[in-house]
Amino acid sequence: MDKNWMTTPYPKDIPLNYKEETKPSVNPENTSVLLFPGQGIIKVGMIKKYMDYPAAKELFEITNEIINYNLLKLCLNGPQKELNRTEFNQAATVVSSLVALEKIRAEAPKVFETCVATAGYSVGEITALILSGIITFEDGIRLAWSRGKAMQYASDMVPQGMLSVFGTSKAQISKACIEAENWIRDMGIENPTCRTAIFLCTERKIIAGNIEALEYIEKHKAQFGLTNTSRLPVSGAFHTPLMEPALKPVSKILNSIEINEPRCIVYSNYKAVPYTNLRYVKKYILKQIVSPVRWEQCLQHIYNRPDGIPFPQTYDIGSNGRMKTILKLVNSKASRSCIVI
């Protein structure tokens, strides 16, 4: 395997596209944007279709060596219940996305040269950082593994979860969360938590918190203008203060990681804007664990443009179309130029 892949998929002589002053004037249709999924996408056997591409197996071999666990075997053979556990799923999601990226490397390598921006959903932000060269492959795997274990630990401390809520722009999600927190506080629950954890699109948000708070919202959804709710198959209230116990171990890993100049724009989930100052990368990655993922705002920032200006070619990497579906809800025109890998 080409060891340059460990630091960046780009040849060394490719311009730093994230610097506005070095970016040539090009037709947006001749540029590419890569989107990466977060936890909960990967299913047992899903990666089989990518394993014949160059470097795919070696990426897993290196991962297995770093984490001292056979993640490839788990991804190929399961059981799914084990793969769903946060401590395994986050690292599995990152390496599986990079393995899916090998399909592009083999069949359309020019995509890397024309990549002007990348974004990853939740743990997928680590994948985007690896792609851009901001962090190395090895450091990215160490970070995803540590993050997964730490967030699993935080998830096990109190009963908690995540709830997908649907409604119009008039839905009172903030009010629902406040009332749910007050309700469970009156029940005697310490540090009650119920917050918007992920902004997906106008009609759909993900809220997270104590299980009792989610149950309250499920029961009273109509009074808050919510048309439907659906539990996510996770045991943690990710991107809320209930994840604070995960911060210390993840911070320790981040302190050992070197930050490098990016080869393309990378979007921060925490701020929903590109990283323009590298000194904030570690800070924002840590903040993301206990703060909402602003995915809708990231997509708006990437794709909003005046009428008549074409969209870049977007690649949905390794999500089985989930990232494209969300993009369609935020910007249907941009989604027409999205290819699922």
TrEMBL record:
The gene is LOC117237539. SMART domains: PKS_AT. Gene3D superfamilies: Malonyl-CoA ACP transacylase, ACP-binding, Malonyl-Coenzyme A Acyl Carrier Protein, domain 2. Pfam families: Acyl_transf_1 (PF00698). It comes from the Eukaryota. This is Probable malonyl-CoA-acyl carrier protein transacylase, mitochondrial isoform X3. Signal peptide: none annotated. Residues 35-333 form the Malonyl-CoA:ACP transacylase (MAT) domain.
